[in-house]
Each structure stands twice: as C-alpha cells, then as structure tokens.
Amino acid sequence: MMFHLKRAWFNMLSTPLVTLVAILTISIALTCLILYQTFLHNLRNYIDYRIDGSRIVVYMHGDRDGDLEAFLKRYNLNFRFIDHKEALVIFSQRYPDESDLLSAMEVNPLPQSYLVSMDSHNIQYFRSIINGIKSSGDSVLSVEYSFHEISVLLEALDLTERFRLIIGAFVVFVCAVMVSNTIRISYYKYMDDIRILRILGASSMFIKGPYFLEAFLIGVCSIAIAIGASLYSVYFLASDTSFLTILGSYALHYPTMEQVALNSSIVALLSVIVSMFTLRGAS
C-alpha cells in the first residue's frame, strides 16, 4: 500500500502543472457548488426569519370587531388587539420626541388595531388573508403589511432551486473531465515502465493502483481547498458590516457538516470511479 501511495505522489509531482490545473479547477467548481447550496440554505432561513418578523396591522374605526376576530380564528391566525392606551405607549417608544404632543391631547387620536402574525410560505395565502381582512366589514380603517419583499424572495428561491441540479451536473462533469485527462497523461507518460512491469509479471491492479490513488488524492486536495475557500467566503460576508446591515439581526449560516461530507464523498468517489473507467482499456 505504501508503494502505491508513494507512486501516486510521485505521479502527481512529475506532472505538476497538469495536476495543479486539475486540483484548482475541481476546487473552484466544488466551491461554487458548496456556496450555492449555502446560499439556498440561508435564503430559506432568511425567508423564515422575515416571515417570523412580519405582521399585518389592521387599523380600526372603532372598538373590537367580532366578525374580524371570527375570521382570524377561522384561519388559526395569532392576533392581538391594541387599544388606544397601548397604541400611545408603542408610539411613545418609537417616537419619543412627538409623544409629549399626543399625551397633552384630551382625545387620543391613535386608532385601535389588530396585530396579526403569519406563519406560511404561500404568498397566495398571504394575499387571500389580506383580502379577507379588507372585506370583513366597514370597521376596518386600513391594512398595513410588508409581504412584497417576501414575495420577491420566494420567487428568487424557486428560481434558484431550479438551477441546483444543473450546477451539480456541471461540477460532476468538470471533475470527471479533469481527473480523466490528468490520469491519462500520467499513465501514458510511464508506458515504458508499465511495459517492463507487465513483462515481469505484475498484475493489472498492481500497475493501475497508484493511478487510482492519484485520482483519489486529487479529489481530496480539491475538497480541502474548496472547504477552506467556502468557509472563508461565508466568514468574509459575516464580517462585512455593510452586508450585515442589510440582513438586520439575521445570522448567516455556514455550510453544514452533512452538506460538506456529502459533496466531499461524491467528489472523492467520483475521482476513483473516473480513473477506473479511464484506464479500463489501457494496455
């Protein structure tokens, strides 16, 4: 085994430019795949974060509305009624400079309202709820909501997920081509030595074993570079204050262990399988 491993390293070092190009190309492709999957994971979580932080505010002409509450209960929506006094407290917390002016008034001008929480990724469901609230009665003064951004994010998620298989297939193709070409060049460079080994009675597995290990080592080196580049990229974004300002209090998620392990296993296994097919008919 040590002979095969030493021979595999020697093969890699004997064609340094070819090996380096193969490792860098595969690692770049794999980095793109890991970052793409991380982006999808973060996009799903960010949508959850935005939905959890989204509310529908229903401003009322008067007091509590039984029909509206019945509608909200029918759809199992969480809601809270905010009266004039609580509305003034909330206003004072958000706008302390203007709160004294309202407090001095004999009649509180702030309308009473319902604060409705949503828990669904279906934008059509959002719209149906909003339309139902608006048509629930004349007591509804206005409805405020901010689901437009969530709608855009959901459309972006749907579009991004469609390209997931394409990017995965592209990485497999790049890995197969680069490993195959590298092993073929390395193998045929030592054809004279291989002929001598065959004359001496060496088995096919003994001759080809180092090349299978070489393919595996190329895959492992590419995986190590890709993991490091992916983690650094996410860390760089997570440290960018201007980028974090856009995300608010959402914390970026790093590539998951399951995701990295699956991608690494596929690339390592694919490298060995490709080398076997490449040398299958080699003499």
From TrEMBL:
Keyword ATP-binding belongs to the record: no
GO biological process: cell division
Keywords: Cell membrane, Membrane, Transmembrane, Transmembrane helix
Chain segments annotated as transmembrane: 12-36, 165-190, 211-235, 260-279
Entry GO terms, CC: plasma membrane
Record carries keyword Transmembrane: yes
A Pfam family of this chain: FtsX
Matches recorded under InterPro entries: ABC3_permease_C, FtsX
Major place of residence: membrane
Domain ABC3 transporter permease C-terminal as annotated: residue spans: 166-278
Taxonomic superkingdom: Bacteria
Membrane topology: Multi-pass membrane protein
PANTHER family named among the record's database cross-references: CELL DIVISION PROTEIN FTSX
Protein name: ABC3 transporter permease C-terminal domain-containing protein
